[in-house]
Specification:
Layout lengths: L7 E4 L6 E4 L11 H9 L11 H34 L3 H10 L7 H13 L5 H17 L1
Antiparallel strand pairs: 1-2
Helix pairs in contact: 4-5
Length: about 140
């Protein structure tokens, strides 16, 4: 449970309980909560009927949610723009590799080839073992 700032807190080692004590004022008696609040806020109207604590909590939660949503949207937009600047689409890369006579294969395509090589009756034992080792590498990545 939260305790007011400036409270004296201790752990009772015999019972294992945490204990809190409000600080004593200069005249030797503890201030009440309302007196301390008046001292802290000065001449501000602190009418408890104006807002309930639940209303204030809801308003604060809404403020935090909208701030988080705004930050998230702006960061997603910035991240998306920077990613687009750094990388090219896969279709463009495939076209450039085709111009260089290099065929680019995805991991899925490679795994399908390795499985077909393993299931093929024409493959030797060494080829099947090699296919299994390669397949283990790709499956481990997934």
């Amino acid at each position: 449970q939260a305790v007011p700032a400036g409270s004296h807190v201790r752990l009772n080692l015999q019972t294992g309980d945490r204990e809190a004590k409000l600080p004593d004022s200069e005249n030797g008696r503890s201030d009440t909560r309302e007196e301390r609040r008046r001292q802290r806020l000065g001449k501000v109207d602190v009418d408890s009927n104006s807002f309930t604590s639940q209303e204030l909590k809801k308003a604060l939660a809404k403020m935090k949610e909208t701030e988080k949503a705004e930050r998230k949207v702006s960061s997603l937009f910035l991240n998306h723009c920077t990613v687009r600047k750094k990388f090219r689409p896969i279709e463009q890369l495939k076209e450039e590799f085709e111009k260089l006579n290099v065929k680019m294969e995805t991991d899925y395509e490679i795994m399908v080839k390795l499985i077909s090589k393993f299931n093929s009756s024409a493959s030797t034992l060494d080829e099947k073992v090699a296919a299994l080792y390669d397949l283990e590498y790709y499956v481990h990545q997934v």
